[in-house]
C-alpha cells in the first residue's frame, strides 16, 4: 500500500469520533432509561468509565464497545458510522 492511499486520522478527527461515540451511547442508554451505573454493571465497567466515554474524555476499548453494542443489540459499526440518528 502506498503512503498516499493510507488515511491517517488526525487529532481533530479522533476527537470528533470520540464525541460521536459518546453521544450515541448516551442516546441508547437514555432510550432504555438506565443510568451510567446500570450500563457499567451490565458491560463490566464502572459508572465513571461510562461517563468518561460519553463525555469523550476516555477512549473506549473495542471490547467495551462490543459489550455495549451487544447489550443494545446494534452492530459495533453503529458507533463509528458517520450518519447521525
From TrEMBL:
A Pfam family annotated for this UniProt entry: HTH_3
Keyword Zinc: no
GO cellular component, one term: cytosol
Gene3D superfamilies in UniProt: lambda repressor-like DNA-binding domains
SMART domains: HTH_XRE
Protein's UniProt keywords contain DNA-binding: yes
Signal peptide from the UniProt entry: none
Span of domain HTH cro/C1-type: 25-79
Keyword terms, alphabetized: DNA-binding
Name of the protein this chain belongs to: DNA-binding transcriptional regulator, XRE-family HTH domain
Amino acid at each position: 500500500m502506498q503512503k498516499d492511499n493510507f488515511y491517517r486520522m488526525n487529532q481533530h478527527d479522533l476527537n470528533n469520533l470520540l464525541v460521536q461515540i459518546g453521544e450515541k451511547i448516551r442516546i441508547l442508554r437514555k432510550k432504555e432509561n438506565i443510568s451510567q451505573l446500570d450500563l457499567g454493571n451490565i458491560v463490566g465497567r464502572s459508572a465513571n468509565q461510562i461517563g468518561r466515554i460519553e463525555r469523550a474524555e476516555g477512549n473506549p476499548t473495542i471490547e467495551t464497545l462490543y459489550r455495549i453494542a451487544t447489550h443494545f443489540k446494534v452492530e459495533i459499526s453503529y458507533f463509528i458510522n458517520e450518519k447521525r440518528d
